[in-house]
Structure prediction request, 170 residues.
Amino acid sequence: MARSHGSGRFRPEDLARCGQGVVFEEGALVFHPENVEIGDDVYVGHQAILKAYHRNRLVIGDGAWIGQQCFLHSAGGIVIGARVGLGPGARLLTSSHRFPEDAGAPIMSGELAFAPIHLDDGCDIGIGAIILPGVTVGRGAQVGAGAVVTRDVPAGAIVTGVPARVIGAR
Prediction:
């Protein structure tokens, strides 16, 4: 029989750390809560999925806001700074499959590669944006709605598009 990742149901005391004033809306799921650290006054919206992993950490800083239906996959590790906002439906992905040596083999057969994501203090990730493995979004940067971020974003930059490009500064 195949092995499930579990239901994602959790109790705050199951988390590695759960600060004061944390709100989990109905339908929010947390996987591997023992590897999730949440600071004070964090909001986690309806149906958000915090998918920690059996290694590495998912760390969410004080005053962060995780919108509804966000998906955070932290197999490679995620650090979200203080007062960071993630708009509804944002996606943070820290792993990908490498292409297998045999070009005829399914991509899913390729080795997994992991790389962390860092969202520095005060940055904002727009609705439906996607942050890919290995990316750092600098302090106070703005990622536009629907952007796909494939490389680091400088502090204070404004990025939009697919792939995301700097269009200005705050």
Summary: The chain has a mean pLDDT of 96.
